[in-house]
Amino acid sequence: MQQALWYIPRPSRFPFSFETGLTRYLQGSHILSILRAGSPSPFTSIEVIARRSVPANPDAKVEVKEFVEKDTTKWTPHVASLSPTPTTWFSGLATTRGAAGGFETQYKLEHDLNIELAKAAKEAGTKTYVLISAAGANVKSNFAYPRMKGEIEEHIKEIGFEHTIIVKPGLIVGDRQESRPVEAISRAIATGMGHLYHGLKDPWAQDADVIAKAAVMAAIKVEKGEVKDKVIVVSQADIIRLGKREWPASS
User: Residue 111 belongs to a domain with what CATH number?
Assistant: First the structure.
């Protein structure tokens, strides 16, 4: 897998790739932590494609290799050169309008680069693509951001991976390096409601680590052949089921 734009893992038995976002995408770090820990993840090696190096983890059980490059135009050639080819690609590539300097640039970074990297991964032989999207993604939306997220989903599906997993969280709860004031207030409300009763929070807001576990669990089910659908949509309810109820308690 990859971070920063994404982490890409390479396994001896299950090749895997991961990329993370241009602005440190919250669940990206959680996905990497889960993959590094090994079981229940079947992936035995990870390669990270990022703009900056990921934090060291002396307790990691799975090897992590990094391709650290601030110039994102060099990422696609690197993906094409990976050997062995990752079987699974996790993508949480995202940025904000403010960080990008405007929506046009945000679209190029979040949509165009995502699609470019996904096409390179498909051509290289990657079988499964896991996209961290958003519950409000809608290609027909009148609003630019959810429309962009919807277009990313549709254009990823058009690439034709053997399996495309689309994870659609609601409000992401957890500490973030970048946060809009309204989002920060909403997360505080969600956290407070969750302390009272998880059922007040789970339908509309999910913890970043739970989202990450759901993404990995969906990929595990595909690897094991338990899910054979070409396109798997992981809704907010599915995130709670996969990332909480079905995730091994000891992991």
Answer: 3.40.50.720
Phi, psi (rounded to 5 degrees) for 166: -115, 115
Q: Which two tokens stand for residue 237?
A: 């309810």
Domain around 144: 2-176+207-245
Q: What is the pTM of this model?
A: 0.84
Question: Would you say residue 141 lies in a domain?
Answer: yes
Determine the Cα–Cα distance for residues 231 and 213; give it in Å rounded to an integer: 19
Matching residue, tokens 């909480």: 244
User: Per the structure, how many domains does the chain have?
Assistant: 1
**92 assigned to some structural domain:** yes
Classify residue 105: in a domain, yes or no. yes
Each residue's pLDDT tens digit, 28-77: 688 888 888 888 888 888 888 888 888 888 888 888 888 888 898 999 99
User: What residues does 167 pair with on adjacent strands?
Assistant: 132, 234
Tell me the C-alpha distance between 67 and 80, whole Å: 13
Residue 184 lies in a domain: no
